[in-house]
Write a structure and sequence with these properties.
Strand content: under 5%
Helix content: over 70%
Shape: globular
Radius of gyration: 19 Å
Number of helices: 12
Number of strands: 0
């Protein structure tokens, strides 16, 4: 998204992202559509709206104004939103051990992000902090989607669910791209061309493939545990930093250990429930 901002606005980035992810699955959706029960089709479409379409636009707009590190922290509110929505709207009973695991993991994420700031080794911009509310809203939508999938769509094949739900997003995103004058984009301009390519790649990997993998995890491990994948973002960030020669400190490793312990605690709660 940061790279795409060089030549595109937030609306264009999000529209290209979701449209590209939808195009990937359109051929599969044609064959899988008949495998989706008619009574569940509305929920399947809502899953893509809450889990892909609206969050993509919210993140694209927010990331233009706030620091990427802060965006990563806000994104990790997803498991907490899953718990709140599960309890308030679905009347689920969630074990205290699982809630503790989520909170421990989140505390590790906060430490990993803010301790380097306090030590003066890193900075985070808090200007335009009101834009962080867009990400909070996106995580709330993620929480709704996770609960919809785990309560009503868990038995569907993840590939069938993803392909059919995302294929319907072609309609609104195609309209938005037309409204934004996509056909008049000067793709001979290298900045615009590479911005479009970056947004499309984000759609292929960050939307299409990632959604399938996420729904597979929901099916196998449950919605709350699947949402804990947001705590894995720091691991990927540190890996890229290591590749580019950045130093990984003992403090960062300890913070990652706290995150993993929280995920482990949440997972053990599920295992104990299954054993009983």
């Amino acid at each position: 998204m940061k790279y795409s901002q060089q030549g595109l606005n937030a609306l264009q980035i999000a529209a290209i992202r979701i449209f590209s992810g939808s195009i990937v699955f359109l051929p599969f959706a044609i064959f899988h559509f008949s495998k989706i029960p008619r009574k569940l089709l509305g929920l399947v479409i809502l899953s893509a709206v809450f889990g892909n379409l609206l969050p993509a636009f919210l993140f694209a707009e927010a990331i233009t104004k706030i620091d990427s590190s802060l965006a990563g922290i806000m994104n990790s509110l997803t498991p907490i939103c899953v718990i709140v929505i599960s309890i308030v709207f679905f009347r689920d009973k969630i074990k205290a051990q699982k809630i503790a695991g989520v909170l421990i993991g989140f505390s590790g994420l906060l430490l990993l992000t803010f301790l380097p700031v306090l030590n003066g080794n890193k900075s985070i911009s808090f200007y335009n902090l009101d834009y962080s509310l867009l990400i909070v809203l996106a995580t709330f939508l993620y929480g709704i989607n996770v609960n919809i999938v785990s309560h009503y769509l868990k038995e569907l094949n993840p590939v069938h669910l993803t392909s059919v739900s995302l294929s319907f997003m072609i309609i609104p995103t195609a309209f938005l791209l037309w409204q934004q004058g996509f056909m008049q984009f000067d793709l001979s301009d290298s900045i615009i061309r590479w911005s479009v390519i970056a947004s499309a790649l984000l759609g292929f990997a960050g939307t299409a493939i990632a959604t399938v993998l996420f729904y597979i995890l929901v099916k196998r491990a449950g919605g709350l545990f699947a949402s804990l994948v947001t705590y894995g973002i720091p691991f990927v960030a540190l890996l890229w930093g290591f590749i580019y020669g950045e130093k990984i400190t003992i403090l960062e490793i300890c913070c990652l250990g706290i995150i993993l312990s929280g995920v482990y605690l949440a997972n053990i709660a599920d295992k104990n429930k299954e054993n009983k």
